[in-house]
What does this fold into?
Amino acid sequence: MHKLAVLLAAGLCLAGCANPNAVGSSGNDDPYESTNRRVFALNQRIDSYALRPTAERYVKYVPEGVRDAIHNALENFDGPMIFANDVLQGHPRLAGQTAGRFVLNSTIGLGGLVDVGTKAGIPAHREDFGQTLAVWGVDSGPYLMAPLFGPVSPRDGTGQLVDLAMDPIWYMPVKGRIFLFVGHKYVTIVDARARNLDTLDEIERDSMDFYATTRSLYRQYRENQIRNGMPPP
It folds into this structure.
């Protein structure tokens, strides 16, 4: 996990070709390591001067119960995107769970502020179009460090562009959708950073090479997501 805590949102072109063994591909090559390390250092400075202080103030001044409600609502808002990727990956059971959670949380859960789905025994899970591309056999491509957004691969960066297009905000009949979209993403980033303050500090403190650790954790994280938590073949 990168200190920015949002690893995947990057506007990158898809590279790599279809590969029948691509599911779970880690993309071990880091051919641009020198450049990636410079971008990584830049991201750390941005985090230190901007994102981390914002996240710390968020934790300090916003009550925990309110933060949890905001987090629940943000996760619920991603329900349609997760459902679409469940379907595209051919997982009807997961698609049913996603639909059920979204309906429960959006109604009884007051727009997602309360996680009724988990209390009802419907576990949460994440899917994105980067995972869908992996299931379809698209190789991840080289490891990249994107300015502001952290670790990404060409496959996952392209997947994020598709997921952004699926964002329900674009289909709301309201004015100023772009401002609503930017605000939603900003709150998502602050929420993610705030929930990982101690974890990321511990990772950095225990790492001899924080860049290499970040690269390794990103690969493990994405492989686990692609396999939906199942062990590798």
